[in-house]
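lol forgot to send this yesterday, sorry. struct tokens for the thing we talked abt
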């Protein structure tokens, strides 16, 4: 990953601390994170943790989409920016599910 996408990913993650519409972004981020946690918990009881993480990411695609759509409505970023950093956000989510990232902040 180059520096520019990394900086943009950090910016997107930090948007939830902004007032006003950021409240909706934070709520949608929490809903996505909750979906991932619940789905992963169920799937991890049935299969390997790695497969469970992949399945959770697929199962929560709708919540992820709502979160990313809200981010793209921000005056600071647009849909192209969000599309560029989506792979990094998904990887952070997977790392969190697998215990490689201690914070639930994606």
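and heres what i got for the seq, position by position
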């Amino acid at each position: 990953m180059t520096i520019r996408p990394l900086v943009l990913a950090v910016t997107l993650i930090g948007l939830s601390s902004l007032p006003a519409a950021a409240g909706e972004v934070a709520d949608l981020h929490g809903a996505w994170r909750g979906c991932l946690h619940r789905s992963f918990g169920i799937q991890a009881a049935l299969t390997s943790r790695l497969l469970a993480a992949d399945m959770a990411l697929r199962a929560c695609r709708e919540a992820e989409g709502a979160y990313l759509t809200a981010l793209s409505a921000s005056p600071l970023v647009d849909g192209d920016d969000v599309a560029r950093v989506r792979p990094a956000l998904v990887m952070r989510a997977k790392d969190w599910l697998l215990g490689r990232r201690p914070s639930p902040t994606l």
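Confidence is low (pLDDT under 50) at residues 5-11, 13-20. anyway ping me if u want another try
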